[in-house]
Q: What sequence folds into this?
C-alpha cells in the first residue's frame, strides 16, 4: 500500500484551559484534495497550521511521506494562509521572485504568473490589487516551489462570486497537475466542487470523514422539499411530515417523495412554488454541527 | 462631532494604557532623562581653569598653588598623555610639583596665558616649558559624534520597527513557512541595513567633511573599519530588541530608552572626561561610546590599529552576543 503523503496521528493542541484540537487523526494520499470543514472555532486552522509546521502540537504528530516534517517538507509544501501581508513597495513579479529565491527548485516566475493569470498585473504594486487579484498572487507565491502538497486555508473568504469561481478554476487546474491539496473552507459549494474527501470538524474533533457523496448517502436517504412559509397552512402542520421551519420557508425531508406529494395535495397545499432538491453538504454540515450560533 | 472625537480619544487612551509595556517605557524615558541630565550637568559650578598635576594623587596642602580657587586640579601621572592634552588645550596648564617646580604651558592658549600668571604668583621660581598646539575645533570633535548618532538611530529604529511591522502584519509568519531560517532572515536584515548605513555615512563623511574642512589625522581605512564593526553591533542590538515584540509602540519605547542614554552618555555632544567614574563606566557599556572613542582617537589624534583594537574587539563581541541572543529569542509570529 502506498504511503500517504500526509499523515496526522492523534493530534492535540491545548491552549491553557482550551483544547483547540482534541485528538485528530487522518491520512491524505498523494494527489487528493482533502477538505477540512467546520464552524468557527472548530479547530480547522489550528490543525492545518500544525500540519504546515507553523504551530507546534501539544501531542501527536504529522508525518510527511512517512517521516516527521523537516527541511524536505518545507521545500515541497506550498502554503496560502487565511491572512498574509506581503512586503510593501514590491510589484507582483518582485513579490513572486522574492519567494522563488527561498526555494532550491521550482517554477520560473513567468510560468507562475501565467498559471495564476497574473501576467497583466506583473508590474503592479502588490498593495494595489483587488481582493481576488491579491488571492491569486498569494496562490502564485504558494506555487513558486512547484509544491507536492498545497495548503489553502479559507482561500476564497471575502471574495465576490466571480473572483471565487475564478479561484476555483485555478485550483482545479492545479488538481489536474496531480498536486495534493489540503483545503479549509466555510463554503460547502467550494468543498463539494473541489474536494475528493472531506473531514467535518467540530469542537476540536472530526465528526465525519469521507468522500462528500458517500457522506451524503450515509447521512441522507431523504430528499428535501422546500415550500414558502406562506404556502404552508396551519392545518398542514398536523400532517405526519418531518419538517423544519426556517424564517421564510418550510423544509420537509422524506424518503417517499410520491407519498409526501400526495399528502400535500390532499391537504390543499399549493405546490407551484415547491422546490425539490437532494441534500447537499450544507445540510450535512448543519445536521452534524448544529444550527446554533457559536460564541 | 465632539462625541465621535471623544469616543475615539477614549478608545485610544484605553489601548495605550492597557499596553503595559509601552506605558512603562513611555514613563521610564523622561525619568531616565531627568536623572541622567542631573548626573551629567548637576553638582557645583564648574571651575574656570583646568590644570594637570603630574602626580598619582593631589595633596592640596602641599603647595599654595593647589589652593587657588576656580581652578580644577587633575592628577595626571602619565606625562605624555598630559602633554597631549595640553597641546589639544583640553588642559590649560601642566605642572610638576614633585621637585624643581617645572610647568608646561601652551603658548597658543589664552586660558593658559592667564592661569600661568596665577602659577607664577604662587611659585615665582617655577621653570617654564612652552608647548604649542591649537585646540581641536568643537566642530571637528563633534563630527564623529554626529556620524555615530546618525548611525545609531538608523540601525536601531530602521531594523527594530521593520521587523516588528513584518511580525505584526503576518509577513514573518509567511516567511516561516518557507525553508528560510531565522539566522538567514536576520543576516539579510543586517546586510541590507548595513548597505544603507555604509552609503549614508560615506556621503555624510565626505559631504560634511568637505564643508567644515575636516581632515582625519589617522588612517581613514581604520575609521571605516570602526564604522563597519560599530554599525554591525548597533544593527544586531536593534534585532535583539525586535526579536520578540509585536507592538511598534513598545519597541519605540524600548529603543528610546536605549538611544537617549547613549546620546547623552556616549560623548556625542560633549566629553564625559570629567564626569563621575561610574558614569564613565556605564558609558563604556554602550557600543556608541566605543565607536566614538575609537573614531576620535583615529580622526583627531591619529591613533593606529593597536590603540583602537580594544574598541574593535568590544564592538565585535557585542555584535556576536546581540546576534546570538536575537536568533535565540526570535519569534516568527505573534504568540
A:
Amino acid at each position: 500500500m502506498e504511503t500517504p503523503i500526509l499523515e496526522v496521528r492523534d493530534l492535540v493542541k491545548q491552549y491553557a484551559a482550551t483544547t483547540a484540537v482534541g485528538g485528530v487523526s487522518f491520512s491524505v494520499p498523494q494527489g487528493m484534495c482533502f477538505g477540512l470543514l467546520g464552524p468557527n472555532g472548530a479547530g480547522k486552522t489550528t490543525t492545518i497550521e500544525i500540519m504546515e509546521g507553523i504551530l507546534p502540537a501539544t501531542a501527536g504528530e504529522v508525518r510527511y511521506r512517512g517521516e516527521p516534517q523537516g527541511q524536505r517538507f518545507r521545500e515541497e509544501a506550498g502554503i496560502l494562509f487565511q491572512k498574509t501581508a506581503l512586503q510593501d513597495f514590491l510589484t507582483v513579479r518582485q513579490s513572486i521572485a522574492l519567494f522563488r529565491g527561498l526555494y532550491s527548485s521550482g517554477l520560473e516566475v513567468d510560468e507562475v504568473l501565467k498559471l495564476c493569470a497574473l501576467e497583466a498585473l506583473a508590474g503592479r504594486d502588490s498593495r494595489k490589487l483587488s481582493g481576488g487579484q491579491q488571492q491569486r498572487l498569494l496562490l502564485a507565491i504558494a506555487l513558486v516551489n512547484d509544491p507536492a502538497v498545497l495548503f489553502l486555508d479559507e482561500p476564497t473568504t471575502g471574495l465576490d462570486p466571480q473572483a471565487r469561481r475564478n479561484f476555483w478554476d485555478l485550483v482545479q487546474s492545479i488538481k489536474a497537475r496531480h498536486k495534493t491539496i489540503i483545503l479549509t473552507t466555510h463554503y460547502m459549494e467550494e468543498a463539494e466542487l473541489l474536494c475528493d474527501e472531506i473531514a467535518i470538524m467540530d469542537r476540536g474533533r472530526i465528526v465525519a470523514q469521507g468522500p462528500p457523496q458517500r457522506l451524503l448517502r450515509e447521512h441522507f436517504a431523504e430528499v428535501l422539499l422546500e415550500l414558502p412559509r406562506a404556502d404552508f397552512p396551519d392545518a398542514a402542520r398536523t400532517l405526519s411530515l418531518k419538517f423544519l421551519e426556517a424564517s421564510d420557508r418550510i423544509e420537509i425531508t422524506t424518503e417517499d417523495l410520491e407519498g409526501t406529494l400526495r399528502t400535500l395535495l390532499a391537504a390543499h397545499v399549493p405546490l407551484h412554488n415547491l422546490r425539490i432538491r437532494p441534500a447537499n453538504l450544507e445540510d450535512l454540515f448543519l445536521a452534524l454541527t448544529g444550527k446554533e450560533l457559536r460564541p | 462631532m465632539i462625541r465621535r472625537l471623544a469616543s475615539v480619544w477614549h478608545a485610544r487612551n484605553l489601548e495605550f494604557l492597557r499596553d503595559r509595556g509601552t506605558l512603562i517605557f513611555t514613563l521610564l524615558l523622561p525619568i531616565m532623562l531627568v536623572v541622567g541630565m542631573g548626573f551629567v550637568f548637576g553638582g557645583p559650578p564648574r571651575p574656570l581653569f583646568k590644570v594637570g598635576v603630574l602626580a598619582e594623587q593631589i595633596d592640596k596642602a602641599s603647595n599654595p598653588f593647589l589652593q587657588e580657587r576656580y581652578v580644577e586640579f587633575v592628577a595626571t601621572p602619565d606625562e605624555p598623555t598630559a602633554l597631549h592634552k595640553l597641546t589639544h588645550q583640553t588642559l590649560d596648564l601642566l605642572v610638576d610639583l614633585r621637585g624643581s617646580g617645572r610647568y608646561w604651558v601652551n603658548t597658543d592658549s589664552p586660558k593658559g596665558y592667564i592661569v600661568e600668571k596665577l602659577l607664577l604668583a604662587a611659585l615665582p621660581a617655577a621653570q617654564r616649558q612652552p608647548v604649542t598646539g591649537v585646540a581641536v575645533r568643537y566642530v571637528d570633535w563633534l563630527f564623529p559624534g554626529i556620524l555615530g548618532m546618525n548611525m545609531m538611530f538608523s540601525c536601531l529604529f530602521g531594523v527594530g520597527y521593520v521587523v516588528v511591522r513584518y511580525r505584526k502584519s503576518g509577513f514573518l509568519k509567511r516567511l516561516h513557512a518557507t525553508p528560510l531560517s531565522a539566522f538567514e532572515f536576520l543576516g539579510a536584515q543586517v546586510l541590507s541595513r548595513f548597505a544603507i548605513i555604509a552609503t549614508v555615512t560615506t556621503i555624510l563623511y565626505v559631504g560634511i567633511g568637505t564643508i567644515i574642512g575636516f581632515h582625519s589625522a589617522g588612517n581613514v581605512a581604520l575609521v571605516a573599519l570602526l564604522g563597519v564593526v560599530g554599525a554591525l553591533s548597533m544593527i544586531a542590538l536593534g534585532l535583539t530588541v525586535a526579536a520578540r515584540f509585536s507592538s511598534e509602540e513598545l519597541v519605540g519605547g524600548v529603543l528610546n530608552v536605549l538611544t537617549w542614554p547613549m546620546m547623552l552618555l556616549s560623548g556625542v555632544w560633549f566629553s564625559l572626561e570629567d564626569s563621575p567614574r561610574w558614569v564613565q563606566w556605564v558609558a563604556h557599556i554602550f557600543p556608541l561610546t566605543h565607536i566614538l572613542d575609537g573614531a576620535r582617537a583615529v580622526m583627531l589624534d591619529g591613533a593606529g590599529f593597536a590603540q583602537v583594537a580594544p574598541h574593535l574587539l568590544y564592538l565585535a563581541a557585542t555584535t556576536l552576543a546581540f546576534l546570538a541572543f536575537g536568533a535565540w529569542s526570535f519569534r516568527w509570529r505573534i504568540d
